[in-house]
Design goal:
By secondary structure, the protein is of the alpha/beta class. Helices cover about 40% and strands about 15% of the residues. The protein has helices spanning about 25-30, 75-90, 100-105, 105-120, 155-175, 185, 190-200, 225-230, and strands at about 35-40, 50-55, 90-95, 125-130, 140-145. Strands 3-2-1-4-5 form a five-stranded mixed sheet, with helices on both faces.
Length: about 230
Amino acid sequence: MKRRTPPDSPGLFADLPAGPDFELERLAVREGYSGIAGTDEAGRGPLAGPVVAAAVILDPDNIPSGLNDSKKLTATQREALFDTILACATVSIASSCSRHIDSRDIRKASLDAMRRAVAGLALPAGFVLTDGRDVPEGLSCRGKAVVKGDARSFSIAAASIVAKVTRDRMMARAAGVFPHYGFEAHAGYGTEKHRMAIALHGPCRLHRMSFRPFRVDGDEETELDAEIAL
């Protein structure tokens, strides 16, 4: 297994700031980089649907107010910030479908979506801040893994919002094609309602067959299972 990129901070987060700021981006600029992009994903844990990644280069002179980790915002706040971010920043979005996830594993599929999101930016990134412990392979510039990055970096927080809103909208549309599962309510996560629908109707092509409860071959825990257990 490929070794993970060492994170920029230890595994204890008692000293995390109250919210993200622009200091990591300013540090990269002071080191001579320009076009600082943040990237994050949404949808690692669900039983169905794609994992969606976004990359965002903010305008330092026009940073939207209220940026934060998407999980700490309401749906209404995320929707409003989504429109604001798209209006004032350079944004790119990419996704990996359930078949891609099943064939590669969720970690690799997530990182590949992040790489493609960065590659799709209209303004080429000169440096990338990545949420988590890994820097995607194949970037055209240097990258830095930032543990809990969506709580520390405005650019990563913006990417987390764009990825989350995009994925929620995709799953709401998927509900119109596969109405039995309630995707519009739980976005593919393993809620009781979702699991009951799977038991009644079986999986559809959006389900990740390498995930439990579909994977029944008795293999050892996947990397996702280990991530969730932490």
